[in-house]
Amino acid sequence: MSGTPRFLTLADVAEVLSTSSAQVYAMVRRGELAAIKIGGRGQWRVEASKLEEYIAQMYTDTATFVAEHPYVEADQAPGQD
To answer: In 3D, which of 30, 31, 28 has the Cα closest to residue 42?
Structure first.
C-alpha cells in the first residue's frame, strides 16, 4: 500500500486545495466533489482519486472559460484594436 491514504477528511482536502473546510463541505453538499458519509456521526470522506478527478475537471472547466472569455486589457475597450 502506498503512503497516500485512500480517503481524506474535508480538512485534508481543504489543505490540498488551499481553501477552508467550510468551502469543501459546501462543494460536497452541492455535489461538485464526490464524497461519502461514514460512521454513526456521519463523517465525510473524499477518496483521493475523486479529488484528483475533481482537480482535473476544474482545469478543463477553467480552460473552457478562458477560451470563451478572452482577457481584455483594462485600457483597451471592447471592439478596439
So the answer is: 28
pLDDT given for residue 74 in this prediction: 76
Amino acid of residue 28: V
Q: What per-residue confidence (pLDDT) applies to 34? A: 98
Residue with cell 482537480: 55
What is the distance between the alpha carbons of residues 45 and 31, in angstroms, rounded to a whole number? 13
* pLDDT confidence of residue 24: 98
Pairwise CA distance, residues 28 & 26, whole Å: 5
Helical pair 10-17 and 48-68, crossing angle rounded to 10 deg: 40
Q: What is the spatial distance between Cα 5 and Cα 27, in angstroms, rounded to a whole number? A: 21
Kind plus residue range of the DSSP H or E element containing 5: none
Neighbouring CB atoms inside 10 A of 51's CB total 20
